[in-house]
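Sequence design from tokenized structure. All designs in this work follow the same two-part layout: the structure record, then the generated sequence. An example of the structure record is given first.
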């Protein structure tokens, strides 16, 4: 069973609270920062953790006794790949407890953003569901009665003579067809991405006009933060690439490290090699060039990573503030169309009498 299916089963069968993963990592990180070893931290947590987090502790302890790393056990338990990659990097550059703590804070921050988005979308989505219910009610209850009414008046006017009524008449087929096409599209995309590399999958989404800027902020912040920490703690960029290619790293890190290694073996500089990757903004390459010229590459990478993270947060907040009005406008137009579909046939009937 592949890792995707394992994560899916865990997400379905577990009863974890939404903030469970973030709180769990913060607890471990806090203990490590206080001087605990990973073994002692897990033993302590096994005495106080309950429910799903208690099972996580037991699972991690068993895995680490078999020689597995902490980040690989987290990945098996369904923790985000980005978090596992950050912890993997931290195992090489130090600040292990601080990094785990930061990962927990990131998960809690992302959870708050999801809550905001959910609160913004809940009411509009309920209205959309109500709207679809109205369409189905008109199709199967109101339109048949109106057809009988038209026939009883022996008028030549046809009830489906305008496009709004035709839309309502075929609304079940339109709704089911749209859902079917969406499901087929998702399955086709999943199969396509599964056959290619992780980099190919990210490249596909980055090329989409709407998602490109968000994903570049996300991945630039991630890579620059981890590379900056490695360089800050004495690693060269070549050593960072070797770390990415080790067996314990995720597929994304291994593919990225392999690609960068190939480019640099051809004689390309760091910024030229990074330019071949789709993850980064153009100014990211300029940041690297400037940082190298001043001998402060690690500092500028960390600063730029923080900048990209703030940019992503601001863009997400702006996006969330725009989604709700757009949905409300769509619902308003649909309600007007439904009202018109009721009134127009009646007016036509009155003219035909």
């Amino acid at each position: 069973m592949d890792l995707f299916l394992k994560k899916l089963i865990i997400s379905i069968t577990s009863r974890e609270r939404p903030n469970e993963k973030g709180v769990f990592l913060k607890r471990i990180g806090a203990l490590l920062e206080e001087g605990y070893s990973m073994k002692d931290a897990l033993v302590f947590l096994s005495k106080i953790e309950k429910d799903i987090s208690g099972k996580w502790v037991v699972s991690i302890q068993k895995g680490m006794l078999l020689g597995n790393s902490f980040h690989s056990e987290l990945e098996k338990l369904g923790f985000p790949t980005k978090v596992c990659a950050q912890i993997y990097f931290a195992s090489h550059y130090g600040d292990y407890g601080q990094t785990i703590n930061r990962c927990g804070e990131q998960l809690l921050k992302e959870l708050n953003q999801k809550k905001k988005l959910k609160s913004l979308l809940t009411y509009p989505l309920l209205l959309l569901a109500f709207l679809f219910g109205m369409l189905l009610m008109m199709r199967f209850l109101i339109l048949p009665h109106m057809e009988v009414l038209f026939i009883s008046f022996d008028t030549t006017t046809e009830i489906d003579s305008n496009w709004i009524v035709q839309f309502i008449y075929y609304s079940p087929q339109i709704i089911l067809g749209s859902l079917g096409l969406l499901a087929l599209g998702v399955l086709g995309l999943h199969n396509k991405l599964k056959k290619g590399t992780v980099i190919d999958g990210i490249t596909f989404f980055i090329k989409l006009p709407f998602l490109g800027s968000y994903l570049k902020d996300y991945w630039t912040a991630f890579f620059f933060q981890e590379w900056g920490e490695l360089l800050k703690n004495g690693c060269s960029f070549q050593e960072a690439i070797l770390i990415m290619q080790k067996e314990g790293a995720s597929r994304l890190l291994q593919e990225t490290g392999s690609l960068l290694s190939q480019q640099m073996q051809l004689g390309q500089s760091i910024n030229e090699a990074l330019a071949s990757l789709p993850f980064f903004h153009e100014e990211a390459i300029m940041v690297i060039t400037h940082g190298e010229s001043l001998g402060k590459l690690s500092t500028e990478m960390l600063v730029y990573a923080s900048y990209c993270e703030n940019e992503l947060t601001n863009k997400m907040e702006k996006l969330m503030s725009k989604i709700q009005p757009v949905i409300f406008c769509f619902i308003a137009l649909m309600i007007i169309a439904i009202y018109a579909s009721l009134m127009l046939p009646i007016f036509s009937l009155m003219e035909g009498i």
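Residues 181 and 187 are 10 Å apart (CA to CA). We note this feature because it recurs in several other targets discussed in the main text.
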